[in-house]
Design goal:
heterodimer; A: alpha/beta; Beta Polymerase, domain 2; 5-stranded mixed beta sheet; two-stranded parallel sheet; 7 strands; about 20% helix; elongated; B: alpha+beta; Cytochrome-c3 Hydrogenase, chain B; 2 domains; 3-stranded antiparallel beta sheet; 15 helices; about 45% helix; globular
Amino acid sequence: MTREEIVTTLKSRYSGQIIDFLDKSKSRIYMEIKPESLRTIAAYVFKELEARFNTASGVDNRFHIEILYHFTIDSINLLISFRVKVNRENPVIDSLTSVFKGADFIEREMHELLGIEFTGQPDKRRLLLSDQWPEGVHPLRSDYKEWDSDAIRDRGV
Amino acid sequence: MAKTIIPIGPFHPLQEEPEYFSLTVEGETVVDVDVELGYNHRGIEKLSESKTYDQVPFVVERICGICSTSHPYAYVKAVEDISGCTIPERAEYIRTIIAEGERIHSHLLWLGLAGHFLGYNTVYMWVWKLREEILDVMEILSGNRNNYAMFKPGGVRRDIREEDIPFVIKKIDSIVKTLDMLKKAILDDPVLHARLKGIGILKREDAIDYSALGPTSRASGVAKDVRKDAPYGAYDKVEWKMIVTEKGDVFDKVVVRVLEVFESISIMKSCLLSLPKGPIDANLADIVPGEGIGVHEAPRGETFHYVRSDGSNRPTRHKVRAPTFMNLPTCKSTVIGAAIADAAIILASIDPCYCCTERLAVCRIDGKRMMNGGELIRLSVEKTEKLKKEMGRR
């Protein structure tokens, strides 16, 4: 499929699910979708369009938690970023691990760094933070404050 | 038979970076594997939010001692994606030269380590000796062996001097000769065939399912390379071919990396020979609000950076995804079912990022080298003798 065909197919197939569409440049597309349709659209893009899952990046923009799921269709050099916005107080989104295994690590990372709950994610253990890190403190949240006043810090040379 | 758990790491002579693998074995067969990360988590994404756009390349350069160009390359591409500027052609060529030099030394580093993991230390010594030569080339081009500090949003920081080019080309030509010999010695070695063929097979569908990257996926027949699929730098201006093999075992990963070194040398050479004249910096104005994505094919696979700007002089969010992050989970499909003796090389076959920043100082006075290799060996022997004597006295 060419780039234009993919754009029109996505627009017509998921017309009710797409909130915003930004054709940024020749190789970059940003698409904001409804959170409940994430799994269907991701499965379509990964399985039918044979896209590669790059990664996901969570952003706390003070009003919402935004998650961007980046997919690349290498054959036509197109990077599609699906943006979902979830409630900041209680961020919940479907896990993509049932669609492809590559989503496992990044969901665990976002779970601890931003406090996003992934429904259907079988592995809830920590990936990066230490065991001493308190529950409910998420370092990439915009309102994060240093919690450990006794910690021995790098003396900085 | 009872199940036994064999821990590898977090600190282990074979894993030079802290990483914990717990292998569940039945007899000698691995039946389950679990990875624990985070021993080296430094919070660089958070740190990056407190640095200006020009400072961030220095931070991301230190994510990894080996991929010290890959992260800045992906980062500056992300920033340039936000501002939409074009880079001078000479800067694109210089970036390509540095990135390929890094690929050569990184692949050679892995090849040496792979030999070391197998107890084949001859390969280790040979390859690392050869790697020194390419590090010398990088020192001439950038002033540093690692952490080249060449990249900035909008261009490069340092130009390549015309008078250095003939020497560099002579040097990489001599590397090709030694490498040819090494390639035959390694790829035709019956011991390595017996040891590496048919183990740690990553199937094509698994490589796709895990979204594995770089040589790890190309060895499994996934013909994807950012340099070909989304050309940047000078990659679409010079001739080179993507190396893809089909079997996906450890031996194929060796083949891909060894052959890629030859391609990298040829890219480097053609870029040096056709280096266009002109400025090396686009002098970027302030970064507009927006978001950008930069990808670069690092030695281990695609490095992915996402940067968001709110119009100030610092990024509000900077996401870094290193290739090992996607490649590491593939151990679930490669190690399970393997013999415990093969586990170390299979886990190492994805080339997990190792840090290597050792360097030897050569003192110069008036441009004259004070010590050569033989003299340094003599110095080292003398020092050992001295220490022996001192210890004997105590």
